[in-house]
Amino acid sequence: MLDLAILGLLHESPMHGYELRKQLSTKLGAIRAAISYGSLYPTLRRLQTAGWITEAGETPAGDADVPPLTSRRGRVVYKITAEGKERFQDLLAQVGPEAYEDAAFGVHFAFFSRTDVDIRLRILEGRRRKVEERREGFREVLARAAERLDAYTLELQRHGLDAADREVRWLEELIANERSGRTPPPRGAEGELRPSPRTTDSARPLTARPGPDDSAE
Amino acid sequence: MLDLAILGLLHESPMHGYELRKQLSTKLGAIRAAISYGSLYPTLRRLQTAGWITEAGETPAGDADVPPLTSRRGRVVYKITAEGKERFQDLLAQVGPEAYEDAAFGVHFAFFSRTDVDIRLRILEGRRRKVEERREGFREVLARAAERLDAYTLELQRHGLDAADREVRWLEELIANERSGRTPPPRGAEGELRPSPRTTDSARPLTARPGPDDSAE
DNA sequence: TCGCGATGTATCGCGCCGATACATCGTTAC
DNA sequence: GTAACGATGTATCGGCGCGATACATCGCGA
């Protein structure tokens, strides 16, 4: 899962570890916390031995003025290989049930620009189904076991239900959009500091179910 | 983190592994996926050697009619010990920065009924601060780097921003409520299938995304 | 010039997951 | 009647990824 993310970034341009981590943090910020070095470096080594990436040494242009006092440890720049690019495409197209999981879905989504439309649709729909199931789970708990749970647990369930419901609607918009032919998600110009530029314009109409909500707003 | 959850459940009543897992799934369903047995059983053993829990054997009342043909492996019922209860209280009150993380926050929240008001407030406020920072991060990316990211990455950022914003509002309501003295979260009539039954006249749906995963949340 | 924060590489222990194996029980299907 | 199946139940194993930690360089302001 990190493999896909790293390969994807290196596909854009060569980079060293630190930079890789920073870019991953912003690119996947909505999905997972910053990736740990304890994961990053071992993964880089694994990718390297597998032949997907190589070191593109960085002996700087500067004269050899600093003799390796303490075995000079410079930054290591990695670049993707031809096999790595193939591997990346393979991983991108590999749409198993794991690809619908929170983290994996996010990573796949982050590289949608480089993914075929049909794959994109398959992933979005799989994810939607998964979140729908989650949502039904919450509904059942709230309907059936409400009196057996304490107030805070119930609040957590409602919170989860609402979040799941919103994600389903979000996915539905994205799916409709993909089908309509326009490739990238639409959206008004940004830069707005307003908290929720969200859903406004076309949005709404797309709820599949009788729609639990919408009593609000 | 599992320690707290397991201790908390066993605090309510003795239970065997399978049941423990089921209850955890519903109680923490909004926070993290179902806990794996690969985590559960080792953790149980750890808690046992630490003395927080003990086996409350389950040799059923039935006569010894089934001689251990294949070393009869019955269900193992665990119960919390006195030390375990102390430990549970300690863990509950331990409010470090880790307690504001997605998963840990959820577990703490799930046991708020057994937590002091001031601790509850401290946790809710810490969590709010954390999510606010997250939110600011998204805003900055969207404001500063919008033109350097592809459409899908941007969409992910907006989604994240919106989710964070909603969670902050949710937390704010909970905090206000705690301060107002009413201990348990308020809420319209139960049994409702409606996802977001109103709170007050302000008529705003509470919500937020748990986040990654969490793994994921 | 001294410290400090950002940049940068790397390792170690361990919590937790997903897959897998194995065993029992009740219900449904033939 | 019995075979199949899904739910219940305990348990292990390989491996991914995290958090803490160590170490080193560089630029900047006090």
Describe the structure.
- The structure is a homodimer of 217-residue chains.
- With 217 residues, the first copy, chain A, is mainly alpha-helical.
- Among the domains of chain A are: 2-59 and 76-100, Winged helix-like DNA-binding domain superfamily/Winged helix DNA-binding domain (Arc Repressor Mutant, subunit A, Orthogonal Bundle); 117-184.
- Chain A has seven helices and three strands; from the N terminus they run H-E-H-H-E-E-H-H-H-H.
- Chain A has helices at residues 2-12, 17-27, 37-50, 82-93, 102-110, 117-144, 151-179, and strands at 15-16, 53-55, 77-80.
- The first copy, chain A, has a three-stranded antiparallel β-sheet with strand order 1-3-2.
- In chain A, helix 1 (2-12) crosses helix 4 (82-93) and helix 6 packs antiparallel against helix 7.
- The longest helix of chain A has 29 residues, at 151-179.
- The radius of gyration of chain A is 22 Å and the shape is globular.
- The two termini of chain A are 38 Å apart.
- Mean pLDDT of chain A is 81; it is low at 59-71 and 189-217.
- At the A-B interface, helix 5, helix 6 and helix 7 of A face helix 5, helix 6 and helix 7 of B.
- Chain A binds a DNA duplex (30 and 30 nucleotides) through helix 2 and helix 3.
Lay out the secondary structure:
The structure is a homodimer of 217-residue chains.
Chain A: H1 2-12, E1 15-16, H2 17-27, H3 37-50, E2 53-55, E3 77-80, H4 82-93, H5 102-110, H6 117-144, H7 151-179
Helix pairs in contact in A: 1-4, 6-7
Chain A binds a DNA duplex (30 and 30 nucleotides) through helix 2 and helix 3.
Protein name (chains A, B): PadR family transcriptional regulator
Region (Disordered) (chains A, B): 176-217
InterPro entries (chains A, B): Metal_resp_DNA-bind_regulator, Tscrpt_reg_PadR_N, WH-like_DNA-bd_sf, WH_DNA-bd_sf
